[in-house]
Specification:
transport; 4 strands; elongated; 249 residues; 7% strand; mainly alpha
Length: 249
Amino acid sequence: MEDERKPLLQTEDSSTSLSSRDNVPNSELYSRGINDDGPARRKKVPRQDFDSITNASENGKFQKTSQTHLVLTICACIFGSPIQIGLNTGMLNAPQEVIKSFYNQTWHDRYGEDIEGTLLTMLWAVTVSFFCIGGMLGGLVAPAFAGRYGRKRTLLLNNFISLASAAMQGMAKRSESYEMLIVGRMLAGVSSGVVSAIGPLYLAEISPTALRGFAGTCNQLSITIGVVTGQLLGLSHFLGTEKYWPLLV
């Protein structure tokens, strides 16, 4: 018995095409792809995506509004997240002796004696290395959060970790607690680890194919800009002083 079903797409002589919305069924529309080494295949495209497919692209280019939204999203993601990795990486190098002096003064106020050189070196090493440990933890948990809450929402929620880190580090001197600085550095590492895992992924998914390489390059460029900025701000001419280093961190 002859099959009475007819595909929506006909040959080139047919007047039926996807450009006409009247010819699209209510439930779904069919598009047809041809493989070089095989017969034609038909795949289903949801009808609600029809308007986005036809309106989002004109002659292979995004509309002006789509381009504007893409640029704003890339800038917000780059300057709001990856730059923090660079800042936290480079900002403690220049004011190292100033912060060590804070460690020594805090130890003296607690125990009535100066801290030993070996112990001071160990505390400083812990302060620096905890950023890397936090980054490892953040990178491990990032995929789970991204899969559950989505890329964008994970990046937004990650800002609360960054704010908590800044608050703890900034209040360390006033509280006379170098432990707060160490824990704050670890939280900064967790925040940076999440960003390093989710940031490039989010940029790659929202960017068209032609701009994915550009978006990935901007992500890495933002990190290096953060390192340079952190190094400059940490100099004694700016915020790397005994009075202003809490603002730096």
